[in-house]
Design goal:
mainly alpha; two-stranded antiparallel sheet; about 60 residues
């Protein structure tokens, strides 16, 4: 996974958390990885700051929409 993909994955985790789809175990693991900063607060801020540059890609059975 390159840096851009990792960034997108982290933003996705923040969105999933906001929607209530992450387990407490997953949330704790992400907090541990964030090395002192609030993982969810940081990436929610990144989403708000860069909202216009995000693009949603949905892949289904080998096709990209």
């Amino acid at each position: 996974m390159n840096e851009k993909e990792l960034y997108a994955w982290c933003c996705l985790q923040a969105l999933l958390n906001k929607a209530g789809y992450l387990s407490e175990e997953r949330k704790e693991k992400l907090r541990e990885l964030s090395e002192g900063k609030d993982f969810f607060e940081y990436y929610e801020g990144e989403i708000q700051k860069n909202y216009d540059s995000f693009r949603l890609v949905v892949e289904e059975e080998g096709e990209t929409a």
